[in-house]
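User: I'm writing a short methods note and want a consistent example. For Fusaric acid resistance protein, I'll paste the sequence; you return only the structure tokens, no commentary, since I'll be parsing the reply automatically.
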Amino acid sequence: MPNVTSLRSAIAHWAQTEGLAWIYIFKAVLAALLTLWIAMRLDMPQPRTAMTTVFVVMQPQSGMVLAKSFYRFCGTIVGLVVMLVLISLFSQQPVLFITATSLWVGLCTAGAARNRNFRSYGFVLAGYTAALIGIPAAQHPDGAFLTALTRVSEVSLGILCAGAVSALVFPQHAGEQIKTTVRRRFSGFVDYVCRALSGRMDRPQIEATHAAFVADIVGFEAARSVAVFEHPETRLKSGRLARLNSEFMSASTRFHALHQLMNRLRANGSTITVAALEPYFHEVAPRLNKSGEPVMNAADAAHAAAQLAAFKAALPRRIRATRTELATQPDFALLEFDTASELLYRFVDDLLAYAETYASLAVPTHEREHWIARYVPRTNLLAASVAGVRTAIVMLALGAFWIATAWPSGGTMVLNAAAVCALASSSPRPTLMAFQMASGTLLAMLAGMIVVFGLYPRMDGFLLLSAALVPFLMLGSWLSTRRNLMGVGVGYCIFFCFLAGPDNLTHYDPTGFINDAIALVLSMLVSAIAFAVLLPTDAPWLRRLLVADLRREVVTGCRARLSGFAAGFGSRLATRFESRTRDLFSQISALTANRPDVQRDALQWLFSVLEVGHAVIDLREELAAFGSEIGDAPWRRSTATTLGAVARLFDKPDAKRFGAALGSTSHAIAQLQDRLDAERPPRDERHRLQRILSHLHFIRTALLDPQSPLDPFNIEKNDSRTAPPNLGVHHAA
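Assistant:
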């Protein structure tokens, strides 16, 4: 029996790993052969173009195929229109035509680098299709329109067949992945909260957990963007899924800020405040379970949300009672207690919103679906422009070589360079991707020579043709499922079809075959060299650029418009801030996959940006709630000065700006304490002023954190001039 059990376990594990890969291989080959058969039955001139399209758009999940196909079709139509315009203008002038085509492809590559997920693929295809259709058609402009329509028909056929096979044969849905991710992430976050509050996590574990959260957030948004193509129910819940992602970001940021503040209080010896608040922390985790068991679905999340709602409703009264009880103690720092308790309340509020949105997924429609904020990616415009300029330079150089040598396969070389540069630009390691594609193309050339000159002359009928192609197509599909060989697999699949894919009228031309193969490999090698030499993506300049963009999200938080409030969640600026910071860090992380020291530095900046940025946005929301009532009060001017000083510090950190930010924050805290002590404002106004004071104090503690990347700029940290104001002042009743 143990042997039978272990065998079943091994089979189940294989089915969930290698089994899924072999299902994908089977579907890809089936879709390619179906496309080839239909294209031949319809007497299309180049069925290999349709077959190539299958391997370009084929993905493991149906939603990915449909999304990629949709954007490929849109990009193809745009590229078709643009290329017809360019042919009509410059077909008699090769230099002008190549120049205009290079600029268009470069512009599309920059757009692909600027966008995310399969939307970027639409930009890639808008450029590549222009080259694919235009460069051959420009040599025979009288038939350009017919050639263009034929290519679009062949591409559309490949899209339709890939989508049909993916959706009907052993379908794998992104929606199922989303359900699994939602469940796993909620339980994982609960476990993280419990372990962090109990002190069972050290700094490296916390850093690794947050890095995993960032990857999960970006991946979840990518899955959500393709799942809407699969099923109407997923489209009905798309807004809630986007909201769930944003609320998870907010809750994780808030909890990290709370956890860091408590660590700072422990390090500063604030034992009274820590002891007073820890009982509340221990009450949070049990309310995230149902009957002691982890939350496993949306129905369980509804129970957890109800418990959290009751805890949140009673929390302000209980906090006030604790504060009143401890306020008489001479060593009790009210400002520290107020700051920590405010963060606790906001964390519980964010966690409740997260649980309620999770619970709302149990029903097809819900009022939480109507939400205006969305995940907003952030890409550096200069980095995207560099990708576009690099592609244009490669195409211009190869185009000049083609014109100068009149090489018959020069057009193939130029249009393939457009495709490789555009596709590899979206890869974290484009040089390696281009070299791998070149290796795959070399393998495809060898396999293609065997098929075209060894097997095709002996084939008679589509069944024998399919039998000859299957092993070669399966090899490429298998390579594309190996993570370390994905570029080789992509290059092999696409260019095996390009070189050896059968046409309705097959030409046995060894010279042309070898010329085309050399052109393909040469274009990839030139592209790889361009990626390695022309402002390479793994160079320090790009990392510094992205880290600077990450820091400047705090500047945006200090200066940008709040843009109204999303119902039940806060300002749109907060949601944009959360998503853009994570997106930037994910890009930095992808560029530094083999540099853990650099990743750690970037993570420290992420923590600092999230803590300070979230605090300044909360501060601005409280100030906005006052409206024009506060006028030009001294504390209001001091707060505005603090926001400006913090923005300047994160824009270009140095010791002088750090001192200015720290000094202005301390001055604003002192002035606001004086206002509370001297004037005794009404209850609601007093509570709002206390919250503003708490945000200012948290900003100050974040600036003084010895683990912050800003700590090296604190050259006066032992100077008495930077000593904190009297935190024990009783500033409010």
